[in-house]
Write a sequence for this structure.
């Protein structure tokens, strides 16, 4: 079974679309919006869209991969490998983590090495990542304010949509059991209940496209009633393909200064985003826009 996750491909050039902003906000409208209705369902990505628990994950993944490639006795320098790895890690960002590890196995084999299975690399990455973020998870378990580990305005956005009767869904490329754990730590499970989905060891058993297909089929709706939020290209492309409204969350995960991350913004516009926001601090204005009658 195909996972439904294709590699990133720019489908929109920034130079070919006009941007405008909802008056008095930092909510950017990219080109012409699709036919839409007031949303009945909303799909959220997790890491970087709502959760900041894993902020800084590339600082774990990239050095691990460089270490693996150096062990092949390649003639490349550590700096050269770091540039190579950063390029493909970020190019695949938004897909299930396993895809980055599959690429690592290819790079090891290309240098004459004997690669481990992608799942083995993924487990080692998760072990190292947990070492980095366990203090954050422990702080949350001990009652530290969840707001410190949420994209600004996340709770306001979820509460505003829920108050309008929108059913909320969560789909992440992070392993499903971690998503459940971290959503609970952040107090988000009350918004999504059983509608939380994440990656499985079999990449064909889960994809964000599959989640979208089930939402539309199970509730007998079309894409015009669906809005999706994410900071990865996969959900933006999937929502757009389904006929929904794709909202890019170009979050600056470290600065959190209300300004969009330039790299994310460009990449997500290229993936076909209809709206771009830096975070959810203007949740009320965004929800009002989503429920406003569509104008010709």
């Amino acid at each position: 079974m195909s996972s439904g996750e294709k590699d990133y491909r720019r489908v929109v050039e920034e130079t070919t679309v006009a941007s405008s902003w909802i008056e008095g906000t930092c909510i950017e409208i990219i080109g012409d919006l699709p036919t839409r209705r007031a949303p009945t369902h909303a799909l959220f990505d997790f890491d970087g869209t709502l959760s900041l628990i894993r902020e800084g994950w590339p600082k774990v993944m990239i050095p691990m991969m460089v270490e693996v490639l150096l062990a092949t006795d390649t003639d490349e320098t550590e700096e050269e490998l770091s540039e190579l790895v950063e390029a493909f890690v970020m190019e695949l960002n938004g897909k299930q983590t396993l895809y980055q590890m599959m690429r690592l196995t290819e790079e090891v084999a290309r240098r004459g090495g004997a690669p481990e299975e992608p799942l083995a690399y993924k487990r080692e990455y998760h072990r190292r990542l947990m070492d980095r973020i366990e203090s954050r998870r422990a702080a949350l378990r001990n009652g530290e304010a969840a707001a410190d580990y949420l994209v600004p305005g996340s709770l306001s956005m979820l509460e505003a949509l829920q108050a309008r009767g929108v059913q909320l869904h969560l789909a992440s490329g992070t392993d499903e059991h971690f998503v459940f754990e971290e959503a609970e730590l952040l107090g988000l499970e009350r918004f999504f209940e059983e509608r939380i989905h994440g990656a499985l060891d079999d990449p064909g058993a889960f994809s964000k496209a599959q989640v979208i297909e089930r939402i539309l089929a199970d509730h007998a709706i079309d894409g015009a009633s669906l809005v999706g939020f994410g900071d990865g290209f996969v959900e933006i492309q999937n929502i757009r393909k389904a006929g929904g409204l794709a909202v890019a969350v170009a979050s600056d995960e470290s600065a959190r200064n209300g300004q969009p991350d330039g790299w994310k913004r460009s990449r997500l516009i290229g993936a076909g985003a209809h709206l771009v926001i830096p975070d959810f601090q203007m949740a009320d204005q965004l929800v009002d826009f989503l429920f406003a009658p569509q104008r010709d």
In short: Residues 14-52+150-291 form a domain with the Rossmann fold fold (CATH 3.40.50.1000). The first strand starts at residue 19 and ends at 21. The first helix runs from residue 58 to 70.
